[in-house]
Structure formats: C-alpha cells, structure tokens
Write a structure and sequence with these properties.
- The complex is a heterodimer of chains A (251) and B (335).
- Chain A has 251 residues and is mainly beta.
- Chain A has three helices and 15 strands.
- The radius of gyration of chain A is 22 Å and the shape is globular.
- In chain B, 43% of the residues are buried.
- Classes of the chains: A mainly beta (251), B mainly alpha (335).
Chain lengths: 251, 335
C-alpha cells in the first residue's frame, strides 16, 4: 500500500516535471563522430597471411595479426579550445571488420581542426583491476604474469627468423614511466569538421603497418619476440606512433 | 514530494543482493583493496567460493583453485614444493598461501600482478596451472544454468563476463581474513590469554631478528628482498628482476607472512625447505651473499638451539585455527 502511494507520487512528479520542462525539441541523434580505419602496408591495403612483404632491412615476411588499442580522444576546436571526450576504449583488430569503425559519442557541437588520441590504454586503467568491454582481458591483450595491457600488436612469419615456426611476435606494452610505450597522436584535419545535431560526420584514417619498421630500422634478426615492457617495445612503439594518417573527412 | 520519491527509490534499492559484512580486525591497518568498486554481497561471495572449488574451470576439468590452495594449509599446497597443474605440468615456484590478501598491493612471489581483481587470471591461464583459454571458459560458463542463476543473484542479470567473474573471485578471497591466532588474542589483551614463558622468549627473538621484514601485524612488510637463498640453476628463477628488468631486483621475492607458518610448509619461493628448523638453520649459516642480498641477512641471523626452539613456540602462536577451520571458506561440492 505504502509502495503504491510512493509510485503514484513518483508518477505525478514525473508528469509535473515534464510539463514544466516542456517537450524538448527533437534533438536528432546525439552528436557523434565516426572514425573509419583502413589498414595498409605501404601504399597497398594490408592483406594478412596471403601476401609477402619486405621490410626496410630487406627481410620478407607475412602478417597474421594486427591489433591495437585506441583511447583518450580529444578534439581541438577551430578557436583553439580543446574538448576532451568522455572515456572510451576501442580494440581495433584487422581480422574483425566491425572493429575498424568506431563511434565517439557526446561531442559538443562545434567546428574542429584536429583530433588527438592515445595508442594504447592509459596507465590508470592498467592498474584498476577487472575491466569490461574492449578492456576485458580475454582479448589476450593483457599480460597475465606482469600486469598491463598490450597496447599494440603485430604477429607474422619471416624467413629471417631462425626458429622452427619462423614466427615473430611484437607485443608492445608498458605503462610505467621507465618502460612506457604510451604514445599520443595528434592529427590535423584537412578541412574543419562540423559537429552538429542531425549530422553524421566521419573521419577516414589509415594505419600503415610498414611504419612499425621505420625510422628506427627494425630487423627480425634483432627483434623477434617482444613479450614484456622494455627497450625493444619502446623502439617499436617509437616507430608505430607514426602509422596513422587522415585521408579525408565527411561532414 | 521530492523527498517522498527519493524515499521510494531507496526502498527499491534494498532489493539488491544481501550485503556481506566482513569483520575487519581492529589491530590491522586499513585494507588496500577498494571495496567501493566491488561491495561484498552474500551471493557474490558464494559465487566466488563456488568458482574457487570448481575443477571445470581448468582446461581438462581436473584442477580447481582449491586443488592447490588447501584450507588446512592456510590455502597453500601441503607437502608440495612446486605448484603443479593440468597434465602433470609443474611450475617453478611454490603455491603462495591465501589470506589477508586485501592488505596486499601486488601479488605473486615477484609482485608481477598489480591488482587483486586480476590475480586469478594468472593461475587460470598459466599452462603449468589451470591452462584455460579465458574466452572459451566464459563461453562454457554461459551455457551453464547454475552459473547463470548464480551470476544473476550476485550481479542482477544472468550476464557472465570476465569482469564479473574476477569480482566474484575477489569477493571470496577478500573474506579470507586470518587474524584470530593466539598471538592476536594476546595483542588484543583477551582476558585469560597469555604467552607461555617460551612463547614470550620467542616473541622477543622474533622482534629482534625477524620483525624488520616480517612486520606486525601482517607479519610481512610486503617488500621484495633477496634473503640469500642460494640460486638454483635448474629453476633459473631471477625473481622480481623478471618484472622490473632491473638487475637490482635479481633474486628478490616478496617477504611472505609468518601467519599460519607452521601449517604452510614447505617454505621459500621454491618450497625447498620442508621443516621450519631448516629455515632457522638456513638463516643461521646458509645465507649465500650476492650483490642483491639484503643487508639485514648478509651476516646471517645467528640462532642458538634454544633460540630456535623458542622461536618455534612463538611461531606456533601465529596459527589461526578459527581461519583454518572456518566453515564458510571450506570446499563446496561441485556436482
């Protein structure tokens, strides 16, 4: 009985609130921004397993896996104001097409001239225990024996690798200052981006795996397996931070 | 009217899972674990306990957490020097005891795991232990009606995720509090409880020679130290250096708690000593000095036969029978 009184009061309260607030104008879809990634090897689309490539050290190789985390997005407005977007974490996997289209929500309307994001997962989420969504550890992008996310990863095979499987595994991680591989990327937009109600803007980006091997030349003979934070992971991360490019935007 | 609505909302919130009230020892510091992220509930703790004893969580359904972590051995592995798991695999370290984990900042002998909630990930997936593929395990659990109802009871919906699984594990592990030994009664001045003369003499020796690292009331300062235990090439265990990559950390391991120590043999990170008197002898004359050996043990810790005996009697007061026999932590039958 008492509960019923409460419920009826609650209903009245809602009705009254809505009357006072007035019906909101149709907001359309919440302003959001789509990022679409295309993966490349140099000038060509990346083809896993089937196509043999040659790195800057002249070693031939194939790629079997290419994954990376993106997070901590912000946009710089034309007037110079920086808008930090709500926390969002994405695991982009070349093998999963849907993961290459990501949507950033709750973006204030405005005109923007550049986008900034982190390749990887910020240090706080590396030390905060069990996580969900893209950060759930069953992705395998988390080191179990030395806690921390693998920020970016390529795996493949090369004749230059002197093991039975001829496999190379670059699992780049490390969130502590000394061995940190967290790289922020700032990309200027080719034309101003308009975020407004009812619009569905999109930025097209490329991620080029060839960049993992340069400018600090990586040879599979010298680096075959990276499975811990350290010098090798830092060297490769120093390279791959340059892998992103914006190819176009649509407002 | 607003107040009434809020009161109504509050009334509805009570319908969530029943809270689990964990009694924290008055003479302990504040726990490190942040319970606001994962409040203990009765169904949450029950789910964690059920999973802890469920051997189906291993690759071939032979090994549960409780297989190695035995309650009567303070959740260490009785009589086993090295941890072993599915298909006869063996690791390179002994099974750590499990109690008072909510006061720890990092886990494993080398401190490589940085949060209690993801601690279970390591033994679950390690090829020498339960060797399971976490993605496959979660899919398997999602088809189990009992797990679906237990997750619903603990978290409100039937959804089974790794985050929920780890949080439920943590809830159960959090209830493993050991603070009810004779030592604790003496410290809390419980009427009628006092050390015997030998225990008291042992306590004095402990305070003089052991307490700098095995700090009260947890009986560990949770630091990583090299105690001069001779390196074994067959195991090639470099300790914390594997985690930090720093040669300063070579052969360093976490200082273990001395609580329940007489019930949790074998000793050391590789379980090489089966008797506490071997440990006393090691500190007395077995320390092998390396560049990282802790200054406190470089000269050894001289212990006479009488002191060893007294120390033994003191360590005996650290056995917490209320914990070792706590029915709410015991094995549950998995049908």
């Amino acid at each position: 009985m008492i509960l019923r009184i409460f419920v009826s009061y609650a209903c009245w309260f809602l009705v009254v609130t809505m009357l006072f607030a007035g019906a909101p104008a149709d907001p359309g879809p919440v302003p959001s921004l789509q990022l679409s990634f295309t993966h490349l090897m140099g000038q060509q689309p990346l083809v896993r397993k089937a196509v043999t490539y040659t790195n800057a050290s002249g070693e031939t190789f194939t790629i079997s896996r290419f994954r990376y985390f993106l997070s901590n997005f912000s946009l710089e407005a034309v007037n110079g104001n920086v808008v930090t977007l709500p926390p969002a974490y994405f695991l982009v996997d070349d093998a999963i097409d849907s993961s290459k289209n990501i949507r950033l929500d709750s973006i204030p309307a405005g005109e923007y001239k550049s986008i900034r994001f982190l390749i990887g997962v910020d240090s706080i989420r590396n030390v905060s225990g069990a996580q969900s969504g893209a950060l759930a550890v069953e992705s395998g992008m988390f080191w179990t024996w030395n806690s921390g996310y693998i920020m970016a990863q390529i795996e493949g095979h090369s004749a230059a690798v002197n093991t039975p499987m001829q496999e190379f595994l670059f699992h780049c991680g490390g969130y502590k200052t000394k061995d940190g591989v967290l790289k922020y990327v700032t990309l200027p937009l080719p034309q101003p981006l308009t975020i407004a109600a009812g619009k569905q803007p999109r930025i097209n980006l490329t991620a080029d795996v060839e960049k993992w091997f340069l400018p600090d030349t990586v040879s599979f003979k010298k680096i075959t397996v990276i499975m811990a934070p350290g010098v090798k992971a830092r060297q490769v991360a120093g390279n791959y931070q340059h892998m992103f490019n914006i190819t176009g935007i649509s407002n | 009217m607003l107040a009434l609505v809020q009161a109504g909302a509050k009334k509805r919130a009570v319908k969530g899972p029943e809270p689990f009230l964990l009694q924290l020892p008055a003479h302990f510091p504040r726990p490190v674990y942040d319970f606001t992220r994962n409040p203990l509930t009765k169904p949450g703790v029950a789910l964690g306990r059920f999973m802890f004893y469920d051997y189906r969580l291993s690759q071939d359904s032979t090994v549960s957490c409780g297989f190695c972590h035995q309650q009567f051995a303070a959740f260490g592995h009785f009589d086993h020097a090295l941890a072993h798991g599915v298909a006869g695999q063996q690791g390179i370290r002994s099974v750590p005891v499990l109690f008072n984990m909510i006061w720890q900042r990092a886990f494993m002998w080398d401190g490589g795991v940085n949060h209690l909630e993801i601690q279970a990930l390591t033994p679950l997936t390690d090829h020498n232990e339960m060797a399971v593929d976490l993605k496959e395990l979660i899919q398997k659990m999602r088809t189990d009606s009992q797990y679906k109802s237990m997750f619903k009871a603990a978290f409100g919906t039937e959804e089974i995720t790794s985050e929920r699984m780890f949080k439920a594990f943590t809830q159960f592990i959090a209830t493993m509090v050991s603070a009810g030994s004779k030592y604790d009664s003496v410290m809390l001045k419980v009427p009628g409880v006092a050390f015997t003369a030998e225990e008291n003499a042992g306590y004095t020796i402990f305070q003089e020679k052991c307490a700098a690292c095995h700090k009260e009331p947890l009986f560990t300062d949770l630091t990583y130290r090299s105690n001069g235990l001779p390196y074994l090439p067959a195991l090639n265990d470099i300790g914390r250096m594997k985690i930090t990559g720093s040669t300063d950390d070579n052969l360093r391991f976490k200082v273990p708690s001395l609580r329940n120590i007489l019930k949790s043999a074998p000793y050391m990170h590789d379980g090489r000593f089966f008797d506490i008197f071997q440990v006393f002898d090691f500190y007395d004359h077995g320390v092998k000095v390396t560049p990282t050996t802790d200054p406190l043990v470089k000269q050894g810790i001289p212990l006479s036969d009488q002191e060893k005996r007294q120390l033994y009697f003191f360590l005996n007061t650290l056995t917490d029978y209320s914990f070792l026999g706590n029915a709410s932590l015991s094995e549950v039958r998995i049908e």
